[in-house]
Amino acid sequence: MATTISLTSTLLFLSIFILAFFPSLFHTILLLPLSPFLSPTSTPQIPLSPPSMSFFQKQFTLPSKARGSYLVTPHVVTALPEIKQYRVGILHLFVQHTSCALSLNENWDEEVRADMSDALDRIVPEDKAGKGLYRHDAEGSDDMPAHVKSALIGASVTIPISEGKLATGTWQGIWYLEFRNSKNTRKVVATIQGEKM
Q: What pTM value is reported for the model?
């Protein structure tokens, strides 16, 4: 009797092990005695490998703007038609400059963007009077404040992709915040990682 319990326990353990780590092998072993009676199309096909991840990267340019906060979601979507190819994934945007920033924020009321620019100017003011507020002023009084604001807000955003669209919230949009007084051309590296449709 002890041998029978031991053999039964061993077979049960082996079955659970095969089921857990090799489900397609377990399925094949289970259907093996029935294989002469089953047509090849009646056996369900089990994928042997998980969906493959795809990576894509490209650079695009933001519209040239002077100091302010700008909603650029439509520009990003137009610059990246590849988003539509992804069932699920992540879009990472990285601006390659040290005196501007990217952010996710309010996408409806333009006053929010104006208020954000004003608030950042109060937090990190220019040294227009030349009182020596900052040591680094090689490119003008807006130079160092632009670097500080960029460090506070950040150079990148990450947005989920769902069914070929950016999965932002109802009131969320991608902002480009320019901290220099003059118009500048800013380059963004976009990286998409995900599973294609």
A: 0.74
